[in-house]
Design goal:
This protein has about 180 residues and is α+β, with helices and mostly antiparallel strands. Helix content is about 55%, strand content about 10%. The longest helix has about 40 residues.
Length: about 180
């Protein structure tokens, strides 16, 4: 299954500020920023995902298939299956957390679109039989292209979100400290 992973253990630009705050605040800021970057990647991949109504595949369907799928939603299952998974849900998440790695992966939910890897990488055609037709259906590489297209937007979103969230956390801590002093 194609998957994009974003892992940014630290930002050199704001690392000095993170040292002044607690680890929990640091993790909250980073989780929020990484999640925002993963959302940008997901948007770019979703734009690149092929749809049968746009590629002409729908025109090749039989009349019965067209009738079955007439009431289906206009959203492609391929687009609907794109999900973001935070690093806390990955296998070995405890080991990653110990190392200070905060990340998010973008990929397909296999229950919704089990065919996503076939569309991305291509596959051999088996048409109405268990025998190979000898024809190779080329992959579209939509996921790889979307990942590359969204990389710069994701990077800028991560940086801006980290700055904004960090400023908000500092303001929150300052208000809390003022409240303690005043009574």
């Amino acid at each position: 299954m194609p998957e994009a992973k974003l892992q940014v253990p630290d930002f050199k630009q704001i690392a000095r500020g993170f040292k002044a705050v607690s680890d929990s605040v640091n993790r909250r800021v980073m989780r929020s920023a990484i999640s925002a970057g993963a959302t940008e990647i997901k948007k770019a991949v979703r734009k690149k995902a092929p749809e049968s109504r746009k590629t002409g595949t729908r025109d090749l369907w039989s009349a019965s298939t067209k009738a079955k799928r007439a009431d289906a939603s206009k959203n492609s299952p391929l687009k609907q299956s794109l999900v973001t998974k935070p690093s806390s849900k990955w296998r070995n998440s405890a080991k990653l957390a110990e190392k200070g790695i905060i990340g998010a992966s973008v990929g397909h939910d296999y229950k919704i679109a089990p065919h996503s890897h076939l569309i991305e990488d291509g596959h051999e055609l088996y048409a109405w039989s268990s025998d190979s037709s000898g024809y190779w259906v080329p992959g579209t590489k939509y996921f790889s292209e979307g990942q590359q297209a969204g990389a710069s937007a994701a990077h800028s979103k991560i940086v801006s979100k980290a700055r904004d969230r960090f400023e908000a956390e500092v303001a929150k801590a300052f208000k809390k400290e003022q409240k303690k002093r005043n009574g």
